[in-house]
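Deliverable D4.2, example record:
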Amino acid sequence: MQKLSKKTYYGLAAGILLAAVAAGIMVKGHSKSAVVMEEVALVRTAVVGAAVDAQNYIYSGEVKGRFESQLSFQVGGKIVKRHVQLGSVVNAGDVLMEIDAKDVKQTVNSNAAQVYSAESQVKLAESNLNRYQKLYEGGAISAAQLDQYKSAYDVAVASLRQASAQYAQGSNQLDYSVLYADKAGVISSITAEAGQVVAAGQSVVTIVQDGEREVEISVPENRIDEFRNMGQLNVSFWALPAVSVDAAVREIAPMADAVSRTYKVRVSLLNPPQEVKLGMTSTVTAANGGNRQAAVYIPLTAIYQNGDVPGVWVLHNESVTLRHIKIGAFGDGKVQVLEGLQNGDVIVTAGVHKLKEGQKVRISGDTL
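Output generated by the structure prediction step:
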């Protein structure tokens, strides 16, 4: 009886083992069949439609004055006094800086002495001429002798004129040692300090004259032609969030900057409020209103890059087809499509990198 039980036990164990192997084969076969089944991807789509190309371009700038004067001394020397600070309001004729004029004063004194000496020579020559004129009238001397004294008198007069001119020039140099404001305005820049030796013509102070205000911006060379016919400009200010001012292009630099390769553009503010101050950071918004065309824009997420050629997946009869496109400008998470799409095309905007040609898809939701 015990021997029969062992046979039964081994038989049951063999049956269980065979059943386990059979179950594993069935599971494996079922897994293979699941892999073979075509995967239906879940995607998001959008309907292509042309819109008016009203793309705006934004440039950062700084508020400046319409007229700026860079002032300098007409003589060189050491600056001994500075009477203004950055932001000082000045009137025409106010003293801005002074340079050491000791050497100039000595030159003026020397010229004054030469004038005094020349005046004495003129008086002596005039006395001699009058004396010898009487002698000539009395027949005591010849005409040739009289001509000599006339010539001496003319030379003395010429010497006096020369000395007087040198004195006037020295006086001007002395006056040039003081720098005056030529117009009323605000001091926007100071490039020299007391104790510094400056050369004649070296800019030391910049005055922004009272009057018009404008914004200077830098425009890349690929946008400069659009700015020549720019229709609408709007200027906002970082320090004045509630202020917005209309503006117009006044001046475009004829050459690009050597370092940044951008063009300086001056934008005139039309009726700016009093709150707009010099040096404020501003934002110029340029609407490309002069060249508004119908254009197609799609989300950047719809682009499927296949090598160097961009494309999009176009949905038709619940399957997708890759279509190559030609793209244009980028901006605000969108890209302009120049060729390859038409109005009404349904494109995939999410999940593009898990698709293949002819694959069936399910739509999670349409976005226009």
